[in-house]
């Protein structure tokens, strides 16, 4: 399996970490993992595609499921060549809302970013 390219954030937004509840956050790593699970149909494959161990990927999925109080990812037990994982409707909605927040943030800061780049003669 090939490694997925890391999501490249355009100038102006390198990290959007949203506090959902006390001690529970949603950021680009967790969002990218949800996206990779949706794309690959597997926690293991998603982890590999992100250069992440299965243990780490599984731990993040558990944290997401527990943090939101409802499953974000459903799994089917299997083993090699069996089973799989998919986002629940709640998981799809959370991912869509997070990506929308990223887009809104990029648009909201675009003018100020351009001004900073111009003031500092930073290459765009």
What does this structure look like?
- This protein has a single domain, classed as Winged helix-like DNA-binding domain superfamily/Winged helix DNA-binding domain (Arc Repressor Mutant, subunit A, Orthogonal Bundle).
- Helix 1 (28-40) crosses helix 2 (43-49) and helix 2 crosses helix 3 (54-68).
- It starts with 17 loop residues before the first strand and ends in a 5-residue tail after the last helix.
- It is built from four helices and four strands, in the order ββαααββα.
- It is α+β, with helices and mostly antiparallel strands.
- The strands form two sheets. A two-stranded antiparallel ribbon has the order 1-2. Strands 3-4 form a two-stranded antiparallel ribbon.
Throw out a few tags for this protein.
two-stranded antiparallel ribbon, two-stranded antiparallel sheet, alpha+beta, elongated, 124 residues, Arc Repressor Mutant, subunit A
Fold topology:
Blueprint: E1 18-21, E2 24-26, H1 28-40, H2 43-49, H3 54-68, E3 73-76, E4 84-87, H4 89-119
Antiparallel strand pairs: 1-2, 3-4
InterPro entries: LysR_HTH_N, Molybdate_resp_trans_reg, WH-like_DNA-bd_sf, WH_DNA-bd_sf
GO molecular function, one term: DNA-binding transcription factor activity
Domain HTH lysR-type: 33-92
Strand order of the largest sheet: 1-2
Residue share in β-strands: 5-15%
Helix proportion range: 40-55%
Shape: elongated
Would you list the SSEs in sequence order as H and E? EEHHHEEH
Structural class: alpha+beta
Number of helical regions: 4
N- to C-terminal distance: 34 Å
**Uncertain residue segments:** none
The CATH architecture designation is Orthogonal Bundle
The number of E-state strands comes to 4
The CATH homologous superfamily is termed Winged helix-like DNA-binding domain superfamily/Winged helix DNA-binding domain
């Amino acid at each position: 399996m090939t490694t997925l390219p890391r999501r490249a954030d355009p100038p102006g937004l390198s990290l959007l970490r949203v506090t959902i509840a006390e001690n529970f956050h949603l950021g680009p790593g967790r969002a990218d993992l949800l996206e990779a699970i949706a794309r690959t149909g597997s926690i293991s494959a998603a982890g590999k595609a992100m250069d992440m161990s299965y243990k780490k990927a599984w731990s993040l999925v558990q944290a997401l499921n527990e943090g939101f109080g409802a499953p974000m990812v459903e799994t089917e037990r299997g083993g090699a060549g069996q089973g799989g994982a998919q986002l629940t409707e709640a998981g799809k909605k959370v991912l869509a809302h997070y990506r929308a927040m990223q887009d809104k943030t990029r648009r909201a800061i675009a003018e100020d970013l351009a001004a900073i780049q111009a003031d500092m003669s930073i290459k765009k």
